[in-house]
Design goal:
- Helices cover 50% and strands 11% of the residues.
- By secondary structure, the chain is an alpha/beta fold.
- The chain folds into three domains: 128 residues, no CATH class; 110 residues, Rossmann fold (3-Layer(aba) Sandwich); 190 residues, no CATH class.
- A hairpin with a 5-residue loop joins strand 9 and strand 10.
- Helix 3 runs antiparallel to helix 4 and helix 5 packs parallel to helix 9.
Length: 472
């Protein structure tokens, strides 16, 4: 699913309306629960401030679960069922967690039926509201009329992305045509849209077609001559928004743009990564150390469980280690719980694991889906060889092959590898060169845009992957 531009006011308004209504419905649901099953009064022998805390706790749990399961991104899913399904799950988890929350939630009523009725009414109410919202209100009220400057490869790519029938209504962009200074292209159709004119008439067409956004799909500053600059400035002064094609593509798709031909792969635009500021580096290290301690504690608790299941279904070593490629190409040894049979690569050498690989044990499949097998890697994080968030480290054998086929593959080694990352939460499991390219595009997006807020977002999404058993 595409990533809607979260700075877009249309997204902010719709999400705010939905979120406000959700919290209001939660409070109404709790009010009904208390008024029906606490017979003495709505505030039975409790100060009103404590009861207000109950409402705050329920709303807080909703915010946590909705963020972890990315509920509000489902606003733009092609099917309403996706929004309703996630809504029901978040509502059920929030209401059940609220009732089970120690010390801060109400005592159980006399009958356990109330417990189930509260969860049921909350889940049903939220699900019906989200169904109605998805049916009537989730589309953008006004599509941004978009004019693309440049009918070359990147112009075609962004036009195809914005006009994708599965996404166009949800993204809210309406491509009206191209502007290109190649006279031979004027009048032709590119990706189903007409090349309207050269740039000398760009301002005229922008006003006539009531354009809201101009996408600049030219690769370098050298391709923008003085006349084109003046026409762009005229459009900006008129109040028309301007954005480079690669920036819009990254915000919509969440990965960098790559030009792929039969013979070569190239980054469409020059790649750069912003230098890390001192505050981010400090916060990042604190995050890594904190999660490492917590992760190793959980790892210790999991060891008896993993050992017992392995003893039953696949006797052999508890842990498995491999050499992986780290930052700046430095090799290091990674640790995991063993998920495959002993000597899984005997006779084959280094090979990628398939989704339904016969070498993966029964318990190992569960460890992978829940990411339990990754817990020992917190030792690598504590030692500073890995980060909590970053590109997944590859084996040197695979890196040497991929570098030959993808010239810019080594760019992913500009940062430390991670236990989880942007590619892992955005792309399905895959073991092909095409999958490696897509994951690399996500990794480069992360390297280019990494920040503490993005890291926290990836952590939330990883939790959702674990809850839904969708780990790689």
């Amino acid at each position: 699913m595409a990533e809607f531009r979260q700075s877009d006011p249309r997204y902010i308004i719709r999400k705010s309306v939905l979120l406000f209504a959700d919290l209001l419905l939660l409070c109404i649901s709790l009010y009904l629960y208390l008024s029906i099953f606490y017979h003495n009064s709505l505030w039975p022998s409790q100060p009103i401030t404590l009861n207000l805390l109950w409402f705050g706790l329920l709303c807080g749990l909703w915010l946590v679960y909705s963020a972890a399961l990315r509920l509000y991104l489902a606003l733009f899913a092609p099917k309403i069922s996706s929004l309703v399904r996630k809504s029901a799950l978040v509502a059920a988890l929030s209401s059940a967690s609220f009732l089970l929350f120690p010390y801060l939630s109400p005592l159980f009523p006399d009958t356990r039926l109330a417990f189930y009725l509260f969860i049921g009414q909350t889940t049903l109410g939220i699900s019906i509201w989200h169904f109605l919202f998805g049916k009537f209100f989730n589309k953008p009220a006004l599509a941004k009329r978009t004019l693309i400057v440049g009918a070359g490869w990147s112009g075609k790519k962004i036009a195809k992305t914005l006009s994708n029938t599965a996404l166009s209504e949800d993204l809210g962009y309406e491509v009206v045509g191209f502007i290109d200074d190649n006279a031979a292209k004027v009048g032709d159709e590119v990706e189903g849209f007409k090349v309207l004119s050269k740039s000398d008439e760009m301002f005229t067409y922008a006003r006539r077609l009531k354009v809201d956004l101009i996408v600049l799909a030219v690769h370098t500053a050298e391709n923008i001559n003085g006349d084109l600059y003046s026409h762009i400035i005229n459009c900006q002064n008129y109040g028309i928004e301007l954005t480079p094609a690669n920036i819009l593509y990254e915000e919509v798709i969440g990965r960098v743009m790559v030009k792929q031909t039969e013979t070569s792969l190239n980054l469409t635009y020059d790649f750069y990564s912003k230098p890390d500021d001192l505050l981010y580096l400090v916060l990042n290290r604190i995050l890594n150390i904190g999660f490492s301690i917590l992760g190793l504690f959980i790892c210790g608790l999991a060891i008896p469980f993993v050992w017992y299941l392995n003893a039953l279904f696949s006797r052999g070593p508890l842990f498995y280690s491999q050499i992986r490629t780290g930052r700046d190409g430095t090799p290091f040894r990674i640790y995991k719980f063993r998920t495959m049979v002993v000597n899984a690569e005997k006779g084959t050498g280094a090979v990628w694991a398939n989704k339904n690989d016969s070498r993966i044990t029964g318990p190992g499949n569960f460890y992978r889906k829940t990411r339990i097998d990754e817990l020992p890697q917190f030792w690598n994080v504590l030692r500073g060889e890995m980060n909590l968030i970053g590109p997944r480290p590859e084996r040197p054998e695979f890196v040497s092959e991929l570098v030959k086929k993808i010239p810019f593959f080594d760019l992913r080694h500009e940062v430390k590898p991670g236990i989880t990352g942007w590619a892992q939460v955005r792309h399905k499991y895959g073991n092909t060169e095409e999958d490696s390219l897509i994951k690399l595009q996500y990794d480069l997006y992360y390297i280019k845009n990494r920040s503490f807020l993005l890291d926290m977002g990836i952590i939330w999404r990883t939790i959702a992957v674990m809850i839904k058993f969708k780990g790689n």
